[in-house]
Specification:
The protein is of the alpha+beta class. The protein is built from 13 helices and 17 strands. Bound molecules: adenosine-5'-diphosphate and magnesium ion. It catalyses: ATP + protein L-histidine = ADP + protein N-phospho-L-histidine.
């Protein structure tokens, strides 16, 4: 309606202009104004026509006009054109009708375009508002969910029952991202856990140096092996904190050569010299640049020690064997060379040879015994054993030996000592200890043995009033072939392996050994056996 009104107003204004041209003084002046009217029509892009009182055409500016005016005053529409008719009042002569024809587009069309744009604008605004409202909530939710994911919280779930497809896809994608990130996080944590468990329990000292030579990580074993807290090491240059030149050089070399290097190094840790297998493994990126170096310290001190013990052992065994063999060969040669004819000499030599032969025999027996006991799969034949019963039979066997040295061997009153153990091995323990007590006690001495039972344990005690052992020697007498007084020990017929065998057997029983001794006054060996759980009452 507003548009029609606008058209009407425009047409009205035009009609008034034409009227003011052609009716200046109440009279329609036709001829002299025709050109002015034509100019106006041209300027306004309209057509102007005049009709007389009989509605017959008087004048038209351009184009074809019907000769007769059919329409009445007012606005009319004809196809694309608008027609406006107005009666011009003529004072003296009859009235004249004015007809203005103009194209609709220039007048109404323009407004339509405006209207369209305004409507479109409003529609766009409304739609935008609608879109903003319907998208902003899920987007805000997605944003919050994303922030939570970044902070490591995976408990938000986007709705999967929304109608709008794009939002549904967004929600499903967010849920999948959340699931994937959660799984990633879990597997990362798992990996990190197993990695740190591995690094901490690898049993070797480990340091990790980054590509520019800063120490990134030092594990607990390293700190223990090198007795350092190493807290000042983190992020320090390895040149400044690693206290061993050999190690620093090895790391330098690994940086240069980009190759894994392994070297056996002897490093001082406080008062000790320790042996390590040090390996430097560079971590390379795909451009073959060193990203870091893993240095692993494998403590082989114990292995080295064992290696040395083994070497010592072989030397000791050879030495122990050589003495009786040399003696045997020597006397045999002397006999062959003629001593065999001297009866007295021959008997004396044969006795020595028998003695040496027996020594050799017992040495070989003990060696075989020790190697059997030390074997990894050595097993005790466990049964219920009465310590006092075993002791009685051992005393019966050793009675003669004690008597020969005029030593009083007595079984003191005590308990029965029921334990779970290997009777044969317990017998071995007792024989070795009592033989020692007899051997290292001078004539007329005393050796007393006893069994003491307690609630969960039973003690076997051998006490002598013999030569005794110096305090600092006590831990050493259990070593193989260790003797406090070498010459005297060999004379006593010992092999140097007795206590080593005792120690192994007691340990196999889960027992303990305690030695009390005073030089010149005597020694007391106490073996503590555990009673088996079923016997504890
Ligand atoms: N009862 C004891 N009194 C003094 N010294 C002892 C006693 N028992 C063992 N020893 C010392 O311990 C060393 C090791 O004993 P052992 O292993 O039985 O070897 P062996 O008796 O063959 O020498 C002996 O050589 C001796 O010096
Ligand atoms: Mg002995």
């Amino acid at each position: 309606m507003a548009l029609l009104h606008d058209d009407l107003r425009t047409m009205n204004t035009r009609a008034n202009s034409v009227e003011s041209i052609v009716v200046p003084h109440g009279q329609v002046l036709a001829a002299e104004n025709k050109s002015v009217v034509s100019q106006f029509a041209q300027k306004e892009r309209i057509q102007i026509a005049f009709y007389n009182e009989n509605r017959k055409l008087i004048f038209a500016t351009a184009g074809k006009e019907k000769n007769t005016l059919d329409q009445m005053d007012g606005m009319h529409q004809s196809g694309d054109s608008l027609i406006y008719i107005k009666t011009l009042k003529n004072d003296s002569r009859p009235d004249v009708s004015l007809k203005i024809t103009g194209p609709k587009t220039t007048i109404v069309g323009l407004n339509l375009v405006y209207f369209f744009f305004v409507a479109l604008g409003i529609a766009v605004l409304a739609y935008r508002d609608y879109l903003v409202r319907s998208y902003s909530r899920p987007i805000r939710f997605a944003a919050r969910m994303g922030e939570n994911l970044l902070e490591g919280s995976y408990n938000m779930i986007a709705s999967d029952s929304v109608k709008r497809e794009s939002i549904l896809r967004l929600n499903l994608a967010m849920n999948r991202i959340s699931d994937a990130m959660h799984e990633l996080h879990r597997s990362y944590t798992r990996q990190q856990d197993s990695m740190s468990t591995l690094i901490e329990n690898i049993g070797n000292g480990l340091i990790f140096i980054d590509g520019v030579g800063r120490i990134n990580y030092v594990n607990q074993t390293f700190k223990e092996d090198f007795q350092t807290s190493a807290s000042h090491w983190e992020l320090a240059d390895y040149h400044e904190v690693v206290p061993y030149e050999e190690v620093r050089e090895l790391i330098d070399e690994a940086f240069e050569t980009k190759e894994k290097l392994v070297r056996q190094l002897q490093l001082s840790v406080h008062i000790e010299r320790k042996h390590f297998d040090v390996s430097c493994a560079p971590v390379l990126n795909k451009h073959n640049k060193v990203r870091g170096i893993v240095v692993v310290f494998h403590d082989i001190t114990a292995i080295k020690k064992l290696e040395n013990t083994r070497k010592d052992f072989v030397a000791n065994v050879s030495h122990e064997l050589r003495t009786p063999v040399t003696s045997l060969v020597g006397f045999a040669e002397t006999l062959i060379d003629g001593a065999i004819d001297d009866k007295e000499l021959r008997d004396q030599f044969l006795h020595i040879m028998l003695h040496e032969g027996r020594r050799l025999q017992s040495l070989i027996t003990d060696l075989l015994e020790l190697s059997k006991i030390e074997r990894e799969h050595f097993k005790l034949q466990l049964s219920q054993v009465s310590l006092s019963n075993v002791l009685d039979s051992v005393l019966f066997m050793l009675k003669g030996k004690a008597e020969a040295k005029k030593i009083r061997l007595s079984h003191l009153q005590g308990n029965e000592g029921l334990i779970m153990g290997d009777a044969f091995r317990i017998r071995q323990i007792m024989i070795n200890l009592i033989t020692n007590a007899i051997s290292y006690t001078p004539e007329n001495g005393t050796v007393s043995v006893s069994i003491h039972e307690r609630k969960q344990e039973a003690d076997f005690i051998v006490a002598d009033n013999g030569m005794g052992i110096e305090k600092d020697q006590i831990p050493r007498i259990f070593e193989r072939f260790y003797r406090v007084d070498k010459a005297r020990s060999r004379d006593s017929g010992g092999t140097g392996l007795g206590l080593a065998i005792v120690k192994h057997l007691v340990e196999a029983h889960g027992g303990r050994i305690h030695v009390d001794s005073e030089l010149g006054k005597g020694s007391t060996f106490t073996i503590t056996f555990k009673k088996s759980p079923s016997l504890i009452g």
